[in-house]
Amino acid sequence: MADGGRYLVTGGAGYVGSHAVLALADRGDAVTVLDDLSLGHARAVPDGVTLVRGSLADAAVVERVLSDGPWDGVLHFAALSLVGDSMVRPMHYFMANTGLGIRLIDACIRHGVRRFVLSSTAALFGRPGEQVITEDAPVEPGSPYGESKAMLERALLWADRIHGMRSACLRYFNAAGADPRGRAGEDHTPETHLIPLVIDAALGRRAAVAINGGDYDTPDGTCIRDYVHVSDLASAHLLALEQLDARSVTYNLGSGHGHSVLEVIRSVERVSGRPVPHRIGARRPGDPSRLVAMSERLRRETGWAPRFERLDEIVATALAWREAHPQGYGDR
Ligand code: UDP
To answer: Which of 60, 62, 300, 329 is such that its CA lies 20 to 30 A from the CA of 273?
Structure first.
């Protein structure tokens, strides 16, 4: 599958980005990461990969890196990604994600980039009650975060129509787990994501997990999400890139299985063999009750098949990384 290509990865020191970098490097591609390390970690960038420390807000850096082409593709991960945070400072999300994203797209067009991959999100779908979400479901974001990515998807549509820059919009559902070889994992400061928080509670590193609402319209009253292994997300990027020789694509990217917050807690208890103290707290604004992907289009068109199908397997890789890295990357 190696195409001996050269790829630029923005946000390649972050959680999903670093796993995509590993996938590219593992197959022999040359990779340059552009990351300001505000959220990412230099230690998440593997040996042999060039790390340029710089912000997308710094137009000169973006120009300099893109001038160092030709690039066989640009994978754009650098973004803010917290639903709750975006409900507090919406304009900040539009400036950071949409504004800087469009500047990057414009620079890529000027530098002749032909293939662009966008980290998009299930947060595009805010309407409650959808059973399994296909690519044709209406885009109705429930938060500024989702909206900030929806606007980038629209910009990329026009970048293709008018400039012929092909793109893949990959709408991740809930990225989870860690590199099965232990080379990268999830480390946010502060941590807000469910699985690492629940694991830390199991390991006695934090107090009880607060469940964000127990009165949703779901069987056990807690929100349902589709947890997909981060290395399976990474492999989907490589397959999506291949599609771009023919046309632009949009894929929903999840396991197709929904798990409630309580089911995640039970999974961590099973895998770790330890109890997870938890209590029901208030709802988190912007949270849809249920987000589960229909990823048939991706499977059919690219042959993608997740390596980690079961929640317990995903949790096991996350637990192994957290146990081996009690301080995460140890740089905060
Ligand atoms: N969640 C929770 N307690 C926490 C963190 C998260 O109940 O301490 C819930 C959250 O409201 C959502 C699900 O767990 O329903 C997954 O949240 P996460 O922040 O991991 O991902 P998101 O779905 O926001 O992308």
So the answer is: 329
Asked if residue 250 belongs to a domain, the reply is yes
d(CA 281, CA 267): 20
> Could you tell me the two tokens for 165?
């820059």
Hey, what are 233's tokens? 């997300």
d(C-alpha 170, C-alpha 232), whole Å: 12
Question: Within a domain: residue 316?
Answer: no
209 Cβ closer than 6 Å to some ligand 1 atom: yes
Does ligand 1 have an atom closer than 6 angstroms to the CB of 51? Answer: no
| Residue bearing the CA closest to ligand 1, atom 11 | 212
In a domain, 56, yes or no: yes
Decide if 269 is inside a domain.
no
Averaged over 144-161, what is the pLDDT?
A: 98
- Which of 193, 276, 314 maximizes ligand 1 atoms within 8 Å of its Cβ, making it the mutation to test the pocket? 193
Domain of 122, CATH number, reads 3.40.50.720
List of residues 6+ apart from 36 with CB closer than 8 A: 53, 54, 55, 56, 78
Residues 138 and 140: their CA atoms lie apart, in Å, by: 6
Q: How many structural domains compose the chain?
A: 1
Encoded tokens for 147? 């909206």
The verdict on whether 145 is a catalytic residue reads yes
Does the pTM exceed 0.90? Answer: yes
pLDDT cut 90: percent of the chain above it? 93
**Ligand 1 atom index nearest CA of 123:** 25
